[in-house]
Predict the structure of Beta-ketoacyl-[acyl-carrier-protein] synthase III.
Amino acid sequence: MIRSVLIGNGSALPAQCVSNAELAERVDTSDEWIRERSGITQRYIAGEGETTATLARDAAQAALDDAGITIAEIDLIVLATATPDNTFPATATKVQALLGGANFPAFDVAAVCSGFLYALGTADAMLRSGIAKRALVIGAETFSRILDWEDRATCVLFGDGAGAFVMEAQDVAEDGPGVIATRLHAEGKHGELLYVDGGPSTTGEVGKLRMKGREVFRHAVANLAGVLGEVLEDAGHEPSDIDWIVPHQANLRILDATARKLGLTMDSVVVTVDRHANTSAASVPLAFDVAKKDGRIQPGQLVMLEAMGGGFTWGASLLRI
Ligand code: ACO
């Protein structure tokens, strides 16, 4: 059967790391409050010259190096972001040019924190249908640029970064590697719980992130538990078959609550929210890259990726490495 197989992964972070204590010097907050409520201890913030496209390029190049191939062997880029360099052209096309690629489809998808799951699902469908052979799937964000630094309830929770997968269409056995099952959801009626208060067609300004944190929390746990169950059922697996969950890194308490709903412990959950904070569409591939490079995620293992974000949008994908 034809499946999309992960053949390389990479990530990139801005140069500047900002600790909770440093943040507390300019925002009315404390290290203790941020740690207790979210598990975050630090985040990376893009500086001058660092943009969503440059972070995406660095993550993508690292993924290409990991796969042992060059951009010449790629024929699709799908990039997830809610913080593109410009309204258009798509950041994916900018990354294509920065990497020296030409003449293949490259486009952005916007599903906020679950953007990487949407991008992976889209690329997987295009690879399995034969539209492309080898895809770069990227999640990249500079959320620091849409934060209201006067709103302490949101600005302490986010960071910048990028992560990338190289996916290849391969003919594999049933129990072989690749994406096994994916489910994506959206429920637009909850748009006002997590949104940006501007845009090209409304205010003409970029706008700032607004969030009703408590309500987002409640929906996140219920939606994620639901979609994880659906993907496991589609794939014919039990929760106990999962070697690693690589969740969207929004908040340690959401990760904990979701794992418990599946009857799993935090021992099988990859956690990077403490170091990276919430990097939106970048968080799943960033966390995956950390756990793959440090040797936790091994070939042959079953890995569940999952995310939920503004919209609401949410999704999960089960793959064998
Ligand atoms: N520092 C100190 N105090 C603060 C801060 C801060 N940074 N932010 C808020 N507070 C205060 C509030 O003013 C409030 O004070 P009051 O009781 O005197 O009015 C108190 O802390 C409690 O505020 P709440 O917002 O009720 O705190 P809560 O316990 O709900 O935690 C949080 C807030 C962390 C945002 C939580 O609701 C949450 O994790 N929600 C999930 C949202 C999320 O992770 N979103 C990410 C994007 S969506 C996604 O990725 C899934």
